[in-house]
Amino acid sequence: MILICGEPMVMLLEHDGTVMLDCSQTRLAPSGIFILNDGVGLVAKRIEIIPNTTPQILRISSENLAYSSYQRRIGEVHIIRHVVWFARRL
After folding, report:
1. Sign of the four-CA dihedral 72, 73, 76, 81
2. How much is the pLDDT for 31?
3. Residues of the chain with pLDDT under 50
4. How far apart are CA 63 and CA 44, in angstroms?
5. Neighbours of 83 (CB within 10 A)
6. DSSP readout, 17-66?
7. Do 21 and 83 touch, CB atoms closer than 8 A?
8. pTM for this one?
9. How many CB atoms lie within 10 A of CB 9?
10. Torsion, CA 83, CA 8, CA 71, CA 28, rounded to 10
11. 74 three-class SS
12. pLDDT (tens digit, 9 = 90+) per residue, 79-90?
């Protein structure tokens, strides 16, 4: 479990919310919310594999529309784990 900091995933994951990561899953799912290192640091983002790209390209996006989505080759990011549960303060 890790604590979320910041606003990029607001509308789904809130600042100071907690997420649980699936440590048993070692393969990248076709899409979902993941904790990853995109070269800048650890971030929670929605990832989608763009079909029919070689090498595979990922679309990385935030829930908060104030943050732009971007694309990276799969080898340019280190995907930590898939987010499977979250909780937030009331």
Report:
1. positive
2. 80
3. none
4. 10
5. 22
6. -EEEEESS--SPPSEEEEEEE-SSSEEEEEEEEETT-SS-EEEEE-SSTT
7. yes
8. 0.85
9. 24
10. 0
11. helix
12. 999 999 999 877
Q: What's the confidence (pLDDT) of residue 76?
A: 93
Report whether 29 contacts 83 (CB < 8 A): no
Q: Which residue has the tokens 């989608």?
A: 48
Q: Which two tokens stand for residue 89?
A: 């303060």
Cβ–Cβ under 8 Å, residues 3 and 12: no
Structure tokens at 10: 């607001």
> How many other CB atoms sit within 10 Å of the CB of residue 82?
20
Question: Count of CB atoms within 10 A of residue 53's CB?
Answer: 12
18: Cα within 13 Å, side-chain hemisphere? 5
51: preceding bond cis by omega (within 30 degrees): no
- CA-to-CA distance for 71 and 66, rounded, in angstroms? 17
Query: Which single residue is written with the structure tokens 């979902």?
Result: 32
